[in-house]
Design goal:
Blueprint lengths: L5 H14 L3 E2 L2 E4 L6 H4 L2 H7 L4 E4 L5 E2 L12 E3 L6 E2 L12 E3 L6 E2 L12 E3 L7 E2 L12 E3 L6 E2 L15 E2 L5 H10 L10 E6 L2 E6 L7 E6 L5 E9 L2 E4 L1
Parallel strand pairs: 2-3, 4-6, 5-7, 6-8, 8-10, 9-11, 10-12, 11-13
Antiparallel strand pairs: 1-2, 14-15, 15-16, 16-17, 17-18
Pfam family, one: LRR_5
Organism: Triparma strigata
Protein name: Leucine-rich repeat domain-containing protein
Length: 247
């Protein structure tokens, strides 16, 4: 949805300038601003994001900002308007109810962790877009993803872009005329999880041992179960600044 009515657009834009990209009850009005990871993880913002059911984009923006819809847990559908070329990092991470995304033709890049853990997402259609790059973990842990349609322009894949997409197999990927994505999927799905670009270490949390992705303290590092064979299990949460957050 876009604010095509200029009068209403001016009212909304004035409000946005006053408070920034803050959710208004069930609606978040987005003007292309990035939200810092620190701000996105505050309890106050997370509580507000858990009420959001609609995203309204202001006119003439070219980027969906970083972290803008992080943890919008009941958001079901998003219509990203024409003119947007970049979906930023972590934009829709942990939108666990998200089932429908309409991408614009103008889209060229999808950032890291953009749709990670969108576990209700079953289909992604990018055929009509100009996407050239998927960032690290762009669709990681989208455990319901069954079909992926991508354009011939897509050539660059970040580490583990489809990690733990357990329902997605190479034959479910549709391309124009090359097999870059299919070959990529086959390569990562034929490896063990430890060899797919993830470096982990054993960490004891409340008396239980888990595998935790190696990273800086101020980065969100995935937490994984340890299987009965002492191998990497399902992703069950993340670690940030030494604090564990479980799903």
């Amino acid at each position: 949805m876009r604010w095509l009515d200029k009068k209403w657009h001016k009212v909304v834009e004035k409000k946005l300038i006053e408070v920034g990209d803050e959710p208004f009850g069930e609606v978040i009005v987005h003007g292309g601003n990035d939200i810092s990871g620190e701000e996105a993880n505050t309890n106050a913002r997370c509580e507000r994001m858990n009420q959001v059911t609609k995203v309204v984009f202001l006119l003439d923006i070219t980027k969906v900002g970083d972290n803008v819809c992080f943890d919008a847990s009941i958001l079901v559908a998003v219509d990203i308007p024409e003119g947007i070329t970049i979906i930023g990092d972590y934009s829709f991470w942990c939108c666990r109810s998200l089932k429908e995304i309409k991408f614009p033709k103008s889209l060229t890049s999808i950032g890291k962790w953009s749709f990670r853990q969108c576990c209700s997402l079953e289909q992604v259609d990018l055929l009509h877009t100009k996407v050239q790059k998927l960032g690290d973990y762009a669709f990681g842990a989208c455990t319901s993803l069954r079909e992926m349609k991508v354009p011939d322009s897509l050539q660059t894949f970040g580490g583990s872009a489809f990690y733990n997409c357990s329902e997605l197999v190479p034959s479910d990927v549709k391309t124009y005329n090359n097999n870059a994505v299919v070959a990529y999927l086959r390569s990562v799905q034929s490896d063990d999880a430890e060899d797919s670009g993830i470096e982990v270490e054993e960490v004891e949390i409340d008396g239980t041992t888990y595998f935790v992705e190696v990273g800086d303290d101020n980065e969100e590092c995935a937490i994984f179960d340890v299987t009965s064979d002492d191998e990497l299990g399902d992703e069950i949460g993340f670690m940030l600044n030494g604090e564990a957050e479980f799903e």
